[in-house]
Design goal:
By secondary structure, the protein is of the alpha/beta class. It has 23 helices and 34 strands. The strands form eight sheets. A seven-stranded parallel beta sheet has the order 12-13-11-14-15-10-16, sandwiched between helices. Strands 1, 2, 3, 4, 5 and 6 form a six-stranded antiparallel beta sheet that branches. Strand 14, helix 12 and strand 15 form a beta-alpha-beta unit. About 1% of the residues have low confidence.
Length: 752
């Protein structure tokens, strides 16, 4: 009997049917090579096998099967289907983000395809030599090299501590654990103190005897509450703890319990580079069990990780960013989503525009596992789910040990200006506190949520501003190199010597970003060592690590940064945090502005005084009486949450409605306008007052394309799946018309 296979290709297309050649065994989840079109060869995923011949004349056969086992489990396939349905995209678009690049080779010829196929490589593995298993001989060698070769000595100690049966790969993680580079290891091998072997990269797991941190009484209470709720059947729980309360210690205990019984754990973090401290801490406790997964790894390393996990029998611990939710953890029992409120979990481009936090909840439900959401300032949707009993909840209301919450001071910028107590962009209160902190040897973090030197340049005579020729937005001034940069399309140009419009005056920087803050604070405190942490200063992972290492080692006194400094850091020396322009956070045209402002200010405030000597936070604002500012000063999360939820309920916003954003783009404004009007009429017929728009966004042209938006609100009690079904039908009717086929549509479900 002739069999056929529906196959997903990494394209924004539906599944395609291919013939299964006789004698070829294929199963759902298997990767195969197929010819698509006249000559293109792609990697595809078999979705289902059946005996129904499609209705077209020629059915192309599968070329060959790739890899020795299916790449997707039934649970993963269910997750892909849920994402494609919920986020209104194709399975092919899910495939594009779910699998590492080297696992999806393609080519114009079969030879080109074969040349791009992934082939595993060998790696060097290291263990103590047999003679050093003898304790007396080991101590003899250590005494011999301790003074002459301290790095070799430290590496031997770490190897010995790893255990007799554990072998450590000389990869990234191991070199950090051993504090040894390849030269040190080669020297030890020449002396026959260690044994190095070459084999295909793998990870040999040690035992389950982890050195766990001791818990305080409050932490133990929270841990037991979570255990009880999970045992009672709650699949998702929220751990809400103030910054510095020790949520990570609770994560560690739950992770150890799962690993000890052979289960898999996934720890999701917002951005891997910004949580290096967390990863290193996990490696110190769990050693080689920790598997990082993020974009900074090479394509080869990500592919090796995927295939190794696909062969694993359990006991895996992955620390990764949002794409880690697609990894083949077949024994997944626990997903921890750290800083679950962070917007980085939401993918914006390209499709699928998924939220990894929500996908984690779905994935855990599919695998029979549990999801733990952790945050000091949870999203209102999560908080309401916990408050209503849908999710479990545990709280940590006190900082770890003897650490006290920072004292939060509000400084009125308008009042300071009237009194002549403002210098550059700093109020006297903040400058005084910086001076006092530096005098006693403390460190300072200054937060400004805008990078560059200045948001824009303008002519004081005629009002001309520098704008991007491809986007309807002003260019940001970067003083380093005297460049004007568009942060949307990347366009760069030199600062004009004179105003191009009036030809009379020089153009002047307006407003301020992190670069300008760095310059001004260096001028005011010339003895202080100042550094900057933002997307412009962090040009590589090495540059990022250097900035953080210097600050942690107290070689830097003042760190200026964007929201990069708010996440995942625990610096013992920081006793003062300054928030320079809180108004910029509050005055955004977004229903989440107040929530986001509260979260951001509380998170950055939490960097101060994380030890027993306390800390201070100074918030500069022109609206000291603003409700959110007062709530931040009081640390009143619940007050903010209830006020914002009441407002959202009144105006029909999440969590009381589900939002879907539709963005249409085209280079020709007339084609776009006609398509938009056609779509608006059809949508209004089906959805009525649930539709808002069409609207012109604040930035209505990006990369030469004009933009128009719609917003669809579906009440929580209505069928979201039915609404998506109707929406798909309407979109097909409009965009399927010949005159509108060139209009680009982006559909964003649950936009952030």
């Amino acid at each position: 009997m002739q069999l056929y296979a529906d196959i997903v290709l990494p394209l924004a297309q539906p599944v395609y049917t291919f013939a299964v050649p006789g004698g070829t065994d294929v199963a759902a989840g298997q990767a195969v090579a197929v010819q698509f079109g006249a000559r293109k060869f792609y990697t595809g995923i078999v979705w289902r096998v059946h005996d129904r011949r499609p209705d077209f004349k020629t059915v192309k056969p599968i070329q060959r099967v790739l890899y020795d086992a299916p790449l997707l489990s039934a649970q993963q396939m269910s997750l892909w289907e849920w994402i494609a349905s919920y986020y209104m995209c194709s399975l092919g678009e899910v495939m594009r983000v779910a699998l590492p690049a080297l696992m999806k080779p393609s080519g114009d010829t079969e030879e080109e395809f074969s040349g791009d196929e992934f082939r595993p490589r060998a790696e060097c593995y290291v263990s103590l030599a047999a003679e050093l298993r003898d304790e007396g001989r080991f101590h003899e060698v250590c005494e011999k090299i301790e003074r002459r070769a301290p790095k070799q000595y430290e590496a031997l100690l770490e190897l010995a501590a790893a255990g007799d049966e554990t072998r450590i790969a000389t990869g990234e993680v191991a070199r950090r654990l051993l504090r040894a580079d390849y030269a040190v290891l080669h020297a030890l091998e020449r002396k026959k103190y260690i044994v190095c072997t070459q084999r295909e990269r793998s990870v040999e797991r040690g035992g389950s005897a982890f050195r766990l941190p001791e818990l305080t009484a409050h932490q133990l209470t929270a841990l037991n509450a979570l255990r009880e709720q999970f045992a009672a059947g709650k699949t998702t729980a929220l751990l809400q703890g103030v910054t510095g309360s020790g949520k990570t210690e609770i994560y560690i205990h739950l992770i150890a319990e799962v690993l000890s019984r052979g289960g898999d754990v996934l720890l999701l973090v917002p951005e891997i580079a910004l949580t290096a401290q967390l990863i290193e801490r996990m490696e110190r406790i769990f050693g080689s069990r920790v598997t990082p997964y993020h974009s900074k790894l090479t394509n080869r390393r990500r592919t090796e990780t995927y295939l190794r996990l696909n062969r694993s029998d359990g006991g895996e611990f992955v620390v990764g960013v949002r794409s880690s939710v697609f990894l083949p953890l077949k024994h997944l029992q626990l997903i921890v989503v750290d800083e679950e409120h962070d917007a980085s979990y939401k993918q914006t481009e390209p499709a699928p525009r998924y939220n990894a936090r929500d996908c984690a909840v779905v994935m855990a439900r599919l695998t029979g596992g549990r999801t733990l959401l952790g945050s000091a300032t949870p999203s209102l949707e999560t908080w309401l789910n916990a408050a209503s009993g849908k999710y479990g909840r545990a709280e940590l209301t006190e900082r770890y040990g003897d650490a006290r919450p920072p004292e939060i001071l509000v400084s009125d910028t308008l009042r300071a200006a009237r009194r002549g107590e403002r210098k550059a962009h700093f109020n006297k209160l903040l400058l005084d506190r910086i001076g006092e902190t530096l005098d006693r040897g403390g460190q300072v973090m200054l937060f400004q949520n805008r990078r560059g030197f200045s948001p824009y340049v303008a002519c004081s005579e005629c009002g001309w501003t520098a704008r991007c020729p491809h986007c309807n937005v002003t260019l940001t001034y970067h003083k380093g190199g005297r460049k004007l940069v568009c942060h949307y399309c990347g366009h760069t140009e030199d600062v004009p010597a004179k105003c191009p419009s009036c030809k009379v005056t020089d153009v002047l920087p307006m407003g301020f970003g992190t670069e300008k803050v760095e310059e001004e604070i260096s001028r005011i405190f010339p003895e202080a060592r100042v550094a900057r942490l933002d997307r412009d200063s962090v040009t590589s992972e090495k540059a990022f690590s250097a900035i953080i290492a210097d600050f942690e080692a107290r070689r830097t006194d003042i760190l200026v940064g964007t929201q990069m400094i708010t996440k995942g850091f625990d610096f013992a020396g920081v006793s003062l945090v300054g928030i320079l322009n809180a108004d910029n956070l509050l005055n955004n045209p977004d229903f989440r502005a107040a929530e986001r402002a509260f979260q951001l200010m509380m998170q950055v405030a939490g960097r101060a005084g994380r030890r027993d000597d306390g800390g201070e936070v100074v918030i500069q604002t022109s609206e000291p009486g603003h409700p959110v500012i007062r709530q931040v000063a009081a640390g009143d999360f619940e007050g903010m949450a209830r006020a914002q939820l009441a407002e959202r309920k009144a105006f029909f916003y999440p969590p009381y409605a589900r939002l879907t954003s539709l963005t249409l783009r085209h280079r020709d404004p007339s084609v776009l306008r006609n398509g938009v009007m056609d779509l608006a009429a059809r949508l209004r017929t089906r959805f009525g007052r649930r539709l808002l728009g069409p609207m012109t966004p604040p930035v209505d042209r990006i990369r030469e394309e004009y933009i128009t938006e719609f917003l669809l609100k579906i009440e929580s009690g209505a069928s979201a799946s039915r609404a998506r079904e109707v929406l798909r039908e309407v979109l097909r009717q409009t965009l399927g018309a010949k005159e509108f086929q060139t209009v680009t549509l982006s559909c964003d479900v649950d936009p952030q």
